Amino acid sequence: MNADAARRTALAAQGFTDARPVTPPGRRHLQRALSRVQLLQLDSVNVAVRAHYMPLFSRLGSYSPSLVDDAAWSHSVRKPRLLVEYWAHEASLIPVEDWPLLHSGAKKPGWWTNYREIVDRAPELVDGILAVVKERGPVGAGAIERELLGEGSRSTGPWWGRSEVKRLCEYLFGMGTLTTGTRKSFERLYDLPERVLPPEILGVRVDAEEGARRLIAKSAVALGVATEPDLRDYYRLAPQVSRQAVAELVEAGELEPVAVPGWGPAYRHADARTPRKVLGRALLCPFDPLIWERARTERIFGFRYRIEIYVPEEKRVHGYYVFPFLLDGELVARVDLKADRARGVLRVQGAFAEPGCDVARVAVELAEELRHMADWLELESVVVMPRGDLAGVLGAVVR
């Protein structure tokens, strides 16, 4: 498989060869997109749009964010919950049926196990948290603190502090003892899994080996063609666990070894498609699964991408929250975006073209996609600031 075919295979797997709906997207479109990407990463940064909303816009175009909210944080007989929160790639929304896979032991417990010493030291605090959630859930960590520790007081026990309540909530969430019942202004409100997930899901038991195989298989569906480290990274599995699962899936015929120049050993999912060409455009947030593994992004697209949120402003190369721009299967530009909601403006704080691209065409296509994004975010206009080698041309087109 040559590099161009690998790129087209990866784009098809992620849903970028599916036509955007001509009617307002509904649950069927959401489920189709999820069958491609498998999960939506959560992140608290809201400078442009929250991370879990943007990948669907990139693939479906304008849709109501309530489509995700209803699927993730509410339940009714007519519209059963489709998604639940857990640690997958990072904090993510995953299909409810994947809950047993991520609690199978295939993934090692994460950073929250550092709080085990609080559990051992103050088991009565754990009991108190669970009692409050059982009685009042879904409920936020702050409300749990106030219930247990009282208003204004640091603690009511010899070891308890407010930060310890929050840490234990994270520990219990990581262990699967608590989950997210809903969110309010993006605050996680904890609840018991049995009040969030159906019994037929909670009753499923999957051993670690099967869990690893199924998670790697889902990675392969999402990636199309990938190296073993690519497959491993999608759900953040341990190297030994991933390698064994890959070997077993190769033996089963679900993965096919392929050679891609410059990649090293690679694997193609047996059902992956390789379209003859990829057309269309999309803005990609920093946490889009097409680009979240930066080494893979550079290997596939020749596009070096780093998120600069934690870089001091004077040292940033491209900006605070930069969106790569995908056009006809290539990453051709990047824009630093901010939603200035008070002024009703989608602000392009920097715009940069990739070497060798058709700058005039890129500017026209990017301007259209920026207008589309502004309309989706209910912003009145797009304003381009004079920073970056694409800013002048883009600004002239936008005006």
Mean pLDDT value: 95
Please indicate the percent range of residues in DSSP E strands (runs of 2 or more): 15-25%
Give the class from helix and strand content and strand pairing: alpha+beta
Number of helices: 17
Unreliable stretches covering 5 or more consecutive residues = 153-160
Which sequence of SSEs, written as H and E, runs from N to C? Answer: HHEHHEEHHHHHEEHHHEHHEEEHEEEHEH
Q: Radius of gyration, Cα only, in angstroms?
A: 22 Å
- Strand ordering within the main sheet: 9-10-11-12-13
Give the beta-strand count. 13
Q: What is the 3D form? A: globular
What does this structure look like?
It is globular and about 65 Å long. The protein is of the alpha+beta class and 399 residues long. The two termini are 44 Å apart. The strands form 4 sheets. A 5-stranded mixed beta sheet has the order 9-10-11-12-13. Helix 8 (141-149) packs across helix 9, helix 12 crosses helix 13 and helix 12 crosses helix 14. The protein has 17 helices and 13 strands.
